Structures are given as structure tokens and as C-alpha cells.
Amino acid sequence: MRVHRTVYRVTLLAAALGLAACSNSAMQPPAGTTGSAGSSGSSGSSGSSGSGLPGGGTSGSGSSSGSSGQASGQQGSQAGVPAGAGSPVSGSAGDPGAVFDKSLGDYDGELGREREAMAKSGQGSGRAAEGREAGDSTSVRTAGVAGSTGPDVGVSVPGMGGMGSVGGIGGIGSPGGVGGEQGGAGSRTGKGGSGGEAGQQAGGDGGVGPDGEPGTPDDTGAGSGSGAPAPDGAVGDGAAGAGAPGGTAGTLPPDIPVDSSGEDQVARQLREAAMAEKDPAIRDALWDEYRKIMGIRKK
Amino acid sequence: MTTVPGIRSLLLALVLPGVIAGCSVSRTIDYEETDLVRAAGELPDTERLDVGIILFDAGVEAGSETDEKNEKKFIFPEVRQAEARYMPYQLKTTLEASGQWGSVWVVPERSDAVDLTVWGRIDQSDGLDVVLRVGAWDATGREWLNKKYATTVPEKAYSKYREAGQDPYQSLYNEIANDLLKFRKGLSGKELATVRNIAELRYGATLLPAAFVETLEQDKSGNYRLKRLPAADDPMVARMRAVREREYALADTLNEYYANLYYEIGKPYEDWRKMSREEMIRYQDLRRSAFIRGTAGALALLAAVLYEGGGGDNTAVTMAGIYGGFEGIKSALEKRAESNVSRDAIKEAGAGFSAEAEPLVVEVEGQTRRLTGTAEARYQEWRRLLREIYRAETGIPLPEPPAAPSPAAGTPAQESAAAVP
């Protein structure tokens, strides 16, 4: 029965997507219009196929009262009540059985559109799963950084937080993952600023805080949540990242040596991240951290 | 009879350990980690139960949102409202991860569409200590569990390198999931089938009582028993199942919104808990230290007075007692002032996260009401249609029932809410 249910749901969703794709009168009014049942009487039954009910077993002669010409597009969208042959409630547009089927189908369409809209806007569990994956991959990527350097060098992490959050704003990233994961450091520093906000600011001005484990009040001076450039926070010259000559993605700023020998793991990862970063503000912040770790005075 | 030297020794014995202990502001946090019992393989259909987790009770007294009491207890109503939605979702993911259950949904209110209903109340949650009251009832009305779950969260629970998807409170969720599993394993296959059947028929009874109510009966304790099963090919059962599928689809959609909230607040919520935990430890330690120092100081003063009153003629001892006492009290006041800093930090963190969580909670609530409102209208329509169909098929006229609650927004939520102490 559960398997049937799952199949049934998939069918419903697919049918709903099909419905949504149709741009004619088959589109149902927005949710909440219960009067839609009345319109079904005039639409007449076009006799499309109905999907079998879970547990019912038979794909019955569920009468579809959708608009004519939609039968193929709506296959499976109707409830397909297995009323059986000769059921007194199926077959005519005005009878309660047909109205019932139509109403179920309408509701499927409403929910389908709801789910589709959510999926389109990047909401829901799917988005969250993507975010989580992105977060995981970033965690893996940055694990060596934070782990090998300890709190003092943890400044690299908020820069990454900026990446995530900005990505989220652009609609391509997943703030729940990267931004959330790393932006949290900013949140601690901002004390009340959200992870996302802190991440954004960190990307823009390098306003970052230490990635130390405990976010003690003393560490919270950066105020990255407010969006102001971090004047003196725990990372010192974080604000200087804005406007720094960072070059473009894949290129080195003039003061960064081409020769990467002598870099430790942190610096190497920062270099790679900065080289790959397309957002100039984040890239600058990354290069700033690189300079700091490598002891390069910014020109 | 106690001699003066005896009193002195006694007071010294009281004061000295107190002073020593008062200087200490650290403690060991004991905790037990509970692992989730996962299914070794795919669970047979006969053992699967669909679970509905009702949004938790935030544990904030109604009308006390601005109460100073909440502040004193470090309860932030908006944070609790967010937790009341976050925690059920985390429990859902835990149950799903165990592989021991059928579909698991977070539901806004009790639903007859599920086989097992879980509900909880947040008694405490500050990142350090978490106390939940959790109950579970199956469709027959049988209580599976109704107990308090409490744990102290270790620092490592907030580690960035912990297993993905593991909440800092995970141990607690695992414990709840394991308890549910333990109860389920105590039920026979027949009993589980009965639970599923009764769930289905109770749902049917909410739609069309005339067709389903005769299949069930309630015993003296209010639990449901199966009288008979409807015919397998009963078209009304098929229609009922069709509607129930829509209930599931609605729950799926609602859970998308809950998922949104869950992932949106996930990181800031964890950050808040982490910060709150640290400050809470500091606050509690400082308060304890202040108390011990103050008490030790008062005892030292008392000792000095008693010594003097008892004929003690060594002024140095008296002065040492007085000086030590004043120092102890002074130190206690300093510690108390320090603890106020921690208290303010906790409040600030709570206010910050509240501001972040509140709009998200409001949004998901709005979506929930919109969807359940739409569904409610549909259910009313379906009930009416099912009555007409039933009349057409059986020839039995049915009176118009009074407006009944929908399966999606049934009143039994209060029923189960009341059942949880």
C-alpha cells in the first residue's frame, strides 16, 4: 500500500506539472476557491483515464471532468475512483461522483502548483538538501583550514562565509549550507546579526571574526552583522579587503607571488579559493586573508 | 558540651572548604550519548506505521510573552516558537533516518490520517540543558510514551566536525526515536495491522460517519477497537483513501514549508544555542561562585563574632575572620556583577535570534493557515459530495451534519495536548 501511495504521489505531482504546463482553461483558480466544483458541471466529462487508487487496485473508469482536449495532458491527474462498472455515480458531469472526482483533481492541481512554485523559487526540502550538500562539501574543503590553524588563522573561514551567503543572494548558492555554516562565525561576531547577513558583509568588507570555538563577548567587536566595515575586529585589517586590487577570477593580484612554494596548507587553500572566486568582493577578502597569513603587506 | 576551640574548628571546617570551592568556577558536565537504532534492512510493510508529529508546545505560558518571568528564566517566546517548529522537524528527520517507520510528517494539528501521533512540549532549551516532555499515541488511543526527556549538551555536540545532520540535541531525539521503536517492537503484527486499520477507519469516520462509524467502537477508556472491516472493494473505502491521499499530499506540502524554516534557521539557531550554552555555563558558575563566596564570607563574620563572644582573646583571629568575611562578601558581589554580564549576553543573543526567527515563523504560519484553510474548504465539499454519493448508492438519506472539523484541522489536537501533562 505504501508503494502504491508513493507511486500515486509521483503520478499526482507529474500530472500537476502537466496541468500547470497547459496554458488553457484547464488551469484552476488559485487555492481557496471552493466554488470550482460548480464549474465542473458545465465542463462535461471528456472521459480521460484515471489513475488507480492506492489500495483500490483497479484503474477505474474515473470520469475526468476536465476540459476537453486535455485527456492526454492530464492522464493520471484525476483521482480515478475505482467505482467499478455501472457505478451509479460515475459517468455524468452533473452527478456527485463526477464532481467529487473533479474536485479531487482540482485540489491535486492546486497542491501541484504550490509544490511547483516552491521548487521554482528554490524553497522546500530540495533546496535544503542542496544547501546541506553544498555545506558539507565546503566543510570538507575548509576542514583542513580551520583544523590545522586553530582560532588565530580561523579568519579564513568568515571569508568563505561571505561566499556562501552571497551565493545564496544570487540564487545560485545555498545559504543553508555554505553561508549558514561559515556565516555563523560572522553571526557570533555580530552578536545578533544573522549568519546570512554576516556572511554578506564578510564578503563585502571582509568584516570577519575569529572562527574560534567559543564566541565570547570579547570576540564580538567586529560587528559584521551591521554591515559596517569591520574596523578593528578580531581579525584586525579585515575591512581593508574592500576595494583591494584583487584582479579577476583566475588571475593573481600584483602583490601575490606567482611562485606558491612556501605556502602552507591554509595559504594554498586560500589561494585556490581566491583564484576560483568570481565575486570581486569575496575574492578580495580571500586575498586579504592570504596576505595576512603569508605576511604580505598590501600595496 | 562544645568548647570554644571546638566551635572554632567547626567554623573553620565550614568556612575553608567554602572559600576554596567558591574560588572554583568550573565544573564537569556529565552526559550520555544515545545512538539511534537504525533498521538493518528495509522494513516490511506490516511493521511500517505513518507518523504525524504535531508542532510542539513552545512551553511559554499564554499571555506571558512580555512577562519578566520569561526573561528571568531565559525564555525567549519567539525563539521557543521557532523551536516548536524546528524540533518536530528534527525528530521527523531522526525517525526517517532510523528507517523504522513509514512516512513521517510534521503536522500543525492532530490528524486522523496517521497511525501514530507524537507531540511534545519544550520545558527548557538554552543550548546547555534541554528538557522536553514527549508523548505518543497510536490511532487506537493507546499511549506509547509520555515522559520527560532531559539532557545536558556537551561542547562537542556543537563541533563543526560532527556527523552531518546531527543536531546538538541529537542524543535526545535518538532517545525518543528509540523509545518509540521499543514500544512498536512490543506490538505484534496483528496489533500493528489493527492500528493501521483503525487509523484508516477513523479517518473515514471524519469524512462520512454513516459509512464508517459502525466499524469501530470505543471501550471504557476511550480507546478504539475494530468491530469489523469494510469490504475490500467497497467504493466508499476507495473514495476515503483518495481523500486521505490528498491529506498526505497536503502534509507533504506543509512539510516543505517546515523544511524551509528548518533549514533557514538551522545555522543561526545552532549559533544561538552554542553561544547561549557558553554564557549559561559561565553564568551558572559565576552565580554558584558568588553564592559560595557570599556564604563563606557571612560564615567567617559569624565565626569572628562567635569567637569574640566566646571569650576569644586573640584579636588577630577575630580580625582575620572579619577581614575574610568582608572579602568573601565583596568577592561575591563582584562575581554577581560578572554574572550579570553573562546574563545580559544571554539576553542579547536571545533577542538577536528572536529577531531573526520571528519573521520566518510568521511566514510559515501564514503558509500553513492558507493551505489548511484551502484544504478545509475542500474537505467540507468532499464530505458533502460523499454524503450525496452514499445516498445515491444506498438510498439512505443522510441529514446535513453540523459543521465538522476537517481531518486536516481536527480538534483532537487539544485532546492529545491535554493528555500531556
Topology (SSEs and partners):
The complex is a heterodimer of chains A (299) and B (421).
Chain A: H1 2-21, H2 36-43, H3 96-120, H4 124-153, H5 156-169, H6 175-190, H7 195-205, H8 265-276, H9 280-294
Helix pairs in contact in A: 1-3, 2-3, 4-6, 5-6, 5-7, 5-9, 6-7, 7-9, 8-9
Chain B: H1 4-23, E1 51-54, H2 68-72, H3 77-98, E2 104-107, E3 116-125, E4 129-138, E5 143-152, H4 170-185, H5 189-207, H6 209-212, E6 216-218, E7 224-226, H7 235-309, H8 315-394, H9 412-419
Q: Name the chain pair whose interface involves the most residues.
A: A-B, 67 and 66 residues
State the share of residues found in helices of chain A, binned by percent.
Answer: 40-55%
The mean pLDDT of chain B is 85
Structural class given helices, strands, pairing of chain A?
A: mainly alpha
Overall strand count of chain A: 0
Distance between the termini of chain B: 53 Å
Low-pLDDT segments, ≥5 res of chain B:
404-421
Number of strands of chain B: 7
Strand-residue proportion of chain B: 5-15%
The helix tally of chain A amounts to 9
The radius of gyration computed from the alpha-carbon positions of chain B, rounded to a whole number of angstroms, is 29 Å
Question: Which radius of gyration of chain A do the C-alpha atoms yield?
Answer: 28 Å
Our count of helices of chain B gives: 9
Enumerate the spans of chain A where pLDDT stays under 50 for 5 or more consecutive residues.
Answer: 16-92, 142-247
The biggest beta sheet of chain B, please? 5 strands, mixed
Major beta sheet of chain A, specifics?
A: none
Summed up:
Chain A has 299 residues and is mainly α. Chain A has helices at residues 2-21, 36-43, 96-120, 124-153, 156-169, 175-190, 195-205, 265-276, 280-294.
Care to describe what's here?
- The complex is a heterodimer of chains A (about 300) and B (about 425).
- By secondary structure, chain A is an all-alpha fold.
- Chain A has two domains: about 1-120, no CATH class; about 145-295, no CATH class.
- Chain A has nine helices and no strands.
- Chain A has helices spanning about 1-20, 35-45, 95-120, 125-155, 155-170, 175-190, 195-205, 265-275, 280-295.
- Residues about 405-420 of chain B have low confidence and may be disordered.
- Chain B has helices spanning about 5-25, 70, 75-100, 170-185, 190-205, 210, 235-310, 315-395, 410-420; strands at about 50-55, 105, 115-125, 130-140, 145-150, 215-220, 225.
- Chain B is an alpha/beta fold.
- In chain B, α3 (about 75-100) packs across α7 (about 235-310).
- The chains are: A mainly alpha (about 300), B alpha/beta (about 425).
- At the A-B interface, α1, α3, α4 and α6 of A face α7 and α8 of B.
